[in-house]
Amino acid sequence: MHLRTLTLRGFKSFASATTLHFEPGINAVVGPNGSGKSNVVDALSWVMGEQGAKTLRGGNMADVIFAGTSSRPPLGRAEVSLTIDNSDGALPIEYTEVTISRTLFRAGGSEYAINGSSCRLLDVQELLSDTGMGREMHVIVGQGRLDSVLQATPEDRRGFIEEAAGVLKHRRRKDKAVRKLEAMAANVARVTDLTAEIR
Ligand code: ATP
């Protein structure tokens, strides 16, 4: 599995559609200060479901939408698409190429899609969760982030390892199942009470 292309449209400083092509192995993005290198990394996190505006170096999520310049008006939406080569079947989906897209509208609302079909954030997270590219994004170590990984508490460190090992997906599913069981137990207790009252 490797990243094939990343397309940004209206994301941060990338007002016009811009596509980066990656090769297997090491790829380098070079450019002068302020030219948008970190914005490319932000776009990668964002399309994979990052929810924290601060992680994306903004105050709120709408800050990822192109805010305009002296020569160009602001845009109403940001869109990022990431195409992953899945010929080795690392992603649990029957396509050799998988494109994940995320769109955010300034007016509110956002959309996710996998290979052009609308989906939920959860679907994107589940798709990526066995690859270590899941929700907590420890595969992306941004500037200054290395310190926080090195200084992490043992609990946080365990979280990194679980994320990379794909355990978090099962923990989330277990939590969801436990919540359902608790709701069911409450329903059963209520029905038992009502039955007792009727008798
Ligand atoms: P450095 O080498 O200094 O770390 P960099 O190449 O990583 O720089 P970035 O931090 O990716 O640069 O890009 C910063 C630029 O992106 C700034 O000029 C900033 O104004 C611009 N920018 C960030 N968000 C937006 C936005 N929503 N709309 C327009 N431009 C934006």
Topology:
Elements lengths: L1 E8 L8 E4 L15 H11 L29 E9 L11 E9 L4 E5 L2 E3 L1 H8 L16 H6 L3 H12 L1 H32 L1
Antiparallel strand pairs: 1-2, 1-3, 3-4, 4-5, 5-6
The protein binds adenosine-5'-triphosphate.
Adenosine-5'-triphosphate (ATP) binds next to helix 1.
How would you describe this protein?
Belongs to the SMC family. Required for chromosome condensation and partitioning. It is found in: Cytoplasm. The longest helix is centred in the C-terminal third of the chain and has 32 residues, at 167-198. The relative contact order is 0.12. A 6-stranded antiparallel β-sheet has the order 2-1-3-4-5-6. It is 35% helix and 19% strand. It starts with a strand and ends with a helix. It has 2 domains: 2-153, Rossmann fold (3-Layer(aba) Sandwich), CATH 3.40.50; 166-199. The chain has 5 helices and 6 strands. It has helices spanning 37-47, 121-128, 145-150, 154-165, 167-198; strands at 2-9, 18-21, 77-85, 97-105, 110-114, 117-119. It has 199 residues and is of the alpha+beta class. The radius of gyration is 21 Å and the shape is globular. The site of adenosine-5'-triphosphate has 14 residues, from helix 1.
Summarize the structure.
The protein has 199 residues and is α+β, with helices and mostly antiparallel strands.
